Amino acid sequence: MPQNTYQSYFKSPIGTMELVATDVGLSSLIFLDKDITSDTITPPELRDAATQIKEYFEGKRTEFDLKLDIQGTEFQLTVWKKLIEIPYSETISYLQLAKRIGNVKAIRAVGTANGRNPISIITPCHRVIGSNGDLTGYGGGLWRKDWLLKLENKVSGRELFD
């Protein structure tokens, strides 16, 4: 049975984000490299997601309560589920993530799956860093990854990379 698709845009402090949902739940939340001016009303299916993202950027939300419709391979879904388990304002390495899925040899595949995450922030791929503590790889750009981590650490009162 075909799914309806709903789309909206959100102006965040670090750029425009595109939100896409199906009747099942949120399926995509990505940063765009250009501003999109949309005078359309946010569809009801995306209002809760837009509100929760806004609260996140305002420092008022540290956890999300949304239905998700994430599409990917079995391996990608396994990695993305482990991303959701990373607590707000904490970071782990790609190696630690590979260990959490039970396959330390899959570190490169974990990095690839992390990079293909379709729902940024909510599935917090920005919380995965290099083993040496360096910020590495982020589809939205490293400067956004740095900004998101600094926001979370400011809100939680933690030092970056505690």
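the 2nd protein, sequnce then structure:
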Amino acid sequence: MSHHRRTDSHHCGRFRERGVTRREMLSSCLSGFGAMAAAALTGDRAFGLAGDASATGLHHRPRATRVIFLYMDGGPAQMDTFDPKPRLVAEHGKPFGMRMEPTQFNNNGSTFAGPWAFKPGGTCGTPISDLFPQLRELADELLVVRSMTSEFSEHTNANYFLHTGAGLAGRPSMGAWTSYGLGSESRDLPAFVVLHGGLIPPGGIECFGNGFLPATHQGSLVLPRGNGLADVSPREGDPGAQVRKRQLLEALDGSFAARTGHADTIESAIRNWELAFSMQASVPELMDLSGESAETLALYGVDDPNVPTATYARQCLLARRLVERGVRFVELTCPGTGNDRWDQHNAIVKGHEQNARAVDKPIAGLLTDLRRRGLLDETLVVWAGEFGRTPFAQGSDGRDHNPFGFSIWLAGGGVRGGTVFGATDEYGYKAVDRPVDIHDLHATMLHLLGVDHKRLVHRFGGRDMRLTDVHGHVIGDWIA
């Protein structure tokens, strides 16, 4: 039996219709390709009724059509970035005034205040630290959530949790769920793209995997420089030979698929081969920035003398180009800065400053460019690490992992910009006002995309699985 993306109330729980595969449909429709083309164009948002839930098959009218996820690998310190804590400054170097929870390494020190001042940003006045001077100017676009929590204090499990809603490997990434639930707006690019800046997070590429969803929904890793993908350019030689090889491969795959009952793994492999062929034309065009103005390149920092900044700038610019071309979900990983990501167990001043320098200008450029092109209102931008850091020192100049209360932010895509949600205690240690968790984040992201997180399901292992499992609430206060 085939899966259904959404359940309908009139279906009994023991019966599910068998879906028709693409190849079965083509075999049975020997004529009528004009009608098929018309139907395809009607279903395409470029030709259909954009934003109409009844036309798209969504659960409700979406506020966003795509996501850019700015993943801050390692866990930035909330009290050094978006959650100012004067008490840390007043008690710096003194014994910590709360009971310490078990931390990852337990080399606990004194109360620790970072050296960065906070200043109000935008017209809303949201305080943002000197680590992000350019992003601070765009505070009116940001919904800063100061009360995020996680269930895990170790990188690998926390990364799986952030990406997939579960702390173990093997579950589909939120990008895969977005692709599965919404499909692709692009005919020649994947629906889920990961722009690989140089650092694969702990947990590996399983963070971007499709899990038990069809393989067509897994993240496609693209490098920000060069060709983007290995072997994307056709080999030199007779162009007709490549076409004939593809036709032979298609015939062999089709025959094998028919003999195996059109198993999903075979259909996914066929689709991936077909998409790979299309990407030989689309990816080189995507990677060619020669058509971008000098002003745009400078806005992002593409030619910045600091190599990590230039690398992340290209990622941010490519993210904009991807969403323009209909890619549903784009994730950016961090560039290498010579530090252990944002994971500063020591030398936090040097590490956080270098990491912030790499991303501040490119992210500000991305938000500015999306806004002026009219893309930000339909593009949900999410900035988050897998957890935060402790308000007491690890050793003398670092911070340990802290899942009990940390900051993320969202922009565009229907969120309430220029606001702050939730709070941690006076030290920035634990969420005390309107705490939320990763399941709530996922539920709200899907809601903004027009999807009810409780109805986006896939039958696996004898039960209906979903990104939020049996958890998660849509946070209405985040939505404009």
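The two ends are 41 Å apart (CA to CA). DSSP finds 13 helices and 18 strands in the chain.
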